[in-house]
Specification:
single chain, 34% helix, 6-stranded antiparallel beta sheet
């Protein structure tokens, strides 16, 4: 068993009022590192409860400052007050309205202080100093060995403004003794205001760092929501459109065809999906953004390890954690829990109200009988597909088989055939309009390897279709396979919402979206066909995943 395979647990010393991190197989796991007294098992992981969150709990419970001189830690909805567990249910947060709570917070905040909290944290750091030293030494060694073959200018730090990326950035800069590493911050336009404040502080406090901001300035989140519906747990189109897509653009502009190493703050214990990741990833299926190897120095760390490093090394961090948020990605993310939504109603009332109003209006539009209940119970987060959404029609590939020609299909389009449609066929070969019959505006696509025509593309008139195109497959063994990929490009033409997924997918940088046009650069395209292969892009277009319906 490797060191990383050994589970670590949290024990509590009732004498010192401090959590202690110990290996589950340690022979002294029940001994306090401070007083040598006995400890008891507390839980698998913990996070500190800062005075701001403590005061919120006290106000909701109608006992301001009741826990002022107590050590408070939390794990999900369990709060440990001097080691004694207190379960905080969703109903607890609904005892008072957010407005009343805001007023009480304003009233009592001036009396709130960090005196006991700081003393408690000092004991926590001292009790876990050996664990902190191990975490640092192991992470430094990992970073140095992983980065050994990369020049520092080809090393990127993925910076979100959250605690994990904050720790990763600090570890990398220290391990490589280089404060001028490239940091890329993905501004999704949905960041917490406190995240933006922290990012500004970080830039000011790290003046030598090369800090790039990746932001999709062409899209408006609410307008896209109006068109295709809000994100849901299984329909997170926003990640590609507002995060990975813009980051890819920045990477392409900086590095073009160079290989890069990105250190990011992914941790194995965060979710089931992330538990399947490897600490180092460099294959096309695992890496969301091409042309990079990604590595996580904190892959095996728990929440309590992250906070031990932040507090022990006295690193500045996002103040949203002080308020009680346990994650600080997009503030309206469907993966946020009810407590996070409640906190946003208190600390971001205008944004929270606007978002709820939109969700209620959307629920009515798609025919939900009790829209407010649908929204307030969180059922909108479980939405799947495009049922009730007008835009869902765009992902349906509608065609008829041509009765006059074999291996030809007539596809329905939602706009006329133009150059932007024809260039979508670059992945199949060389586009040769000069070989087509000019009388019918035919375009031929030539296979690059064999120099043989494989596709005939022709604008067409078809009853029941406002716009149509006839595509015939030529000189191939598997006509249906080729037509399936043709259908994917038809879907892109009809349904593209500039989500930027294709830009991220193409490792040769051949695909770009400019304005309302999806472009494939014929010089850069290597005809790998990843963009028309279901293995890499189900249905040939990300909108298919988000807008497909059962019918």
């Amino acid at each position: 068993m490797t060191e990383q395979d050994i589970p670590y647990e949290v024990f509590w010393c009732d004498e010192c009022k401090v959590p202690i991190i110990k290996a589950a197989n340690s022979i002294d796991k029940n001994i306090c590192t401070l007083c040598n007294g006995n400890t008891t098992f507390l839980c698998a992981d913990l996070r500190p409860v800062f005075p701001e969150e403590r005061l919120l709990l006290e106000i909701i419970g109608a006992k301001p400052f009741a826990y002022h001189d107590k050590a408070i830690w939390a794990s999900n909805n369990r709060y440990y007050i001097d080691g004694k567990v207190k379960l905080i249910t969703t109903s607890f947060y609904k005892k008072n309205s957010p407005k009343v709570i805001r007023e009480l917070l304003d009233q009592y905040s001036v009396q709130n202080d960090y005196l006991y909290f700081n003393q408690s944290i000092e004991r926590f750091i001292k009790a876990n100093q050996d664990r902190l030293n191990y975490l640092k030494d192991e992470a430094f060694a990992f970073i140095q060995s992983t980065a050994e073959k990369y020049p520092h200018e080809s090393i990127v730090l993925s910076f979100s403004g959250g605690k994990d990326s904050t720790v990763t950035a600090d570890l990398a800069a220290r391990a490589l003794s280089d404060p001028s590493l490239v940091h890329i911050f993905g501004d999704t336009t949905l960041e917490f205001p406190l995240t933006m404040e922290y990012v500004q502080r970080f830039r000011k406090n790290n003046p030598k760092a090369i800090f790039k901001v990746a932001k999709n300035k062409e899209q408006n989140f609410y307008k896209v929501c109006e068109d295709i519906g809000p994100p849901a747990r299984m329909l997170r189109w926003c990640c590609s459109m507002f995060k990975t897509g813009p980051i890819t653009r920045v990477l392409n502009s900086m590095y073009r065809d160079r290989d890069i190493l990105t250190f990011y703050g992914i941790r194995k214990c965060e979710s089931v999906s992330r538990s399947k990741y490897n600490r180092i990833e460099d294959n096309a299926e695992a890496v969301k953004i091409q042309k990079q190897k990604v590595a996580s120095p904190i892959f095996y760390w728990k929440d309590i390890d992250i906070w031990l490093y932040i507090l022990g090394e006295q690193i500045d961090f996002n103040d949203a954690y002080r308020l009680g948020y346990d994650r600080v990605g997009c503030w309206c993310c469907p993966n946020n829990n009810e407590r996070a939504q409640f906190l946003s109603q208190i600390y971001m009332p205008e944004q929270a109200e606007r978002w709820r109003n939109f969700l209620v209006d959307f629920a009515k539009r798609i025919g939900k009988p009790d829209a407010e209940v649908y929204v307030d119970t969180g059922k909108w987060k479980a939405r799947q597909g495009g049922n009730g959404v007008v835009a869902a029609e765009d992902v349906k590939i509608k065609f008829t088989n041509c009765t006059a020609e074999e291996n030809a299909k007539i596809y329905k389009l939602n706009k006329p055939v133009d150059d932007s449609f024809i260039q979508l066929f670059n992945p199949f070969g060389r586009i040769a309009p000069e070989l087509g019959r000019k009388l019918i505006n035919e375009t031929i696509v030539i296979d690059i390897k064999t120099n043989v025509p494989i596709l005939s593309i022709q604008p067409f008139s078809q009853d029941g279709y406002d716009f149509a195109v006839k595509v015939k497959t030529l000189n191939v063994a598997k006509h249906d396979d080729l037509q399936r990929m043709v259908g994917y490009q038809v879907r892109k033409f009809n349904a593209c919402r500039k989500c930027l997924k294709c830009e991220s997918l193409c490792k040769f940088g051949a695909i770009s979206v400019h304005g309302d046009t999806y472009l494939i650069n014929e010089q850069k395209c290597k005809r790998c066909k990843m963009c028309v292969t279901a293995k890499y892009l189900d249905g040939g277009c990300l909108m298919y995943k988000y807008l497909k319906t059962k019918d």
